[in-house]
Amino acid sequence: MPDLIEDPVFHYRCRFERNGDVLRGEFWVEPGGGGKIEHMHPQVEERFEILEGEITYRADGRTQRAVAGDRFTVPAGTRHMFRNTGSGVLRLVADMEPGLNMDELFRDAAALARAGRWTTIGRYAFPTGPRGLMELAEFLDRYRDIFVATFPPQSLQRIAIPALARRARHASGAAA
After folding, report:
1. 20 vs 34, 69, 93, 145, CA distance in Å?
2. What is the full DSSP assignment across 4-43?
3. What is the pLDDT of residues 100-149, one digit of tens each?
4. How far is CA 99 from the centre of its chain?
5. What CATH number labels 5-100?
6. Domain ranges of the chain
């Protein structure tokens, strides 16, 4: 059985399995938790099926609600976010295609959360200090081909994130 990943900031647990080019994630999301930060995956389509509970999601500027038995798709390049708006644990599966290294993204994001490097306020993620800022920038730069946060503005991200990521890699002794 695949390892369970726990994220204390976004309040979910998940595990992944690969089937060819499709990465299937099974998620258990606590009330109020979820992918609450608006983002997009430039190359990855996500197909969701709600198994238990209730989700409110925003995709391409439209807010919708889904419950057990509902399915919806978020095409690659679409701005989206979601939250468990029910009173119990939300259980869903998400098929990501192509799966690329999305499982690594979730694993690394959860590790940063467990290390206390970031927090969320509303639909934004904030570093918890200078070290958190550097590690968050390095994370965003490393996964830029599959995950793009919509805040701060892309013009600022294009300038700040690579520069901060280089500093973080230099400080940790990693290759730039």
Report:
1. 26, 25, 17, 20
2. PEEETTTTEEEEEEEETTEEEEEEEE-TT-S--S-EE-TT
3. 999 999 999 999 999 999 888 876 778 999 999 999 999 999 999 999 98
4. 13
5. 2.60.120.10
6. 5-100, 103-172
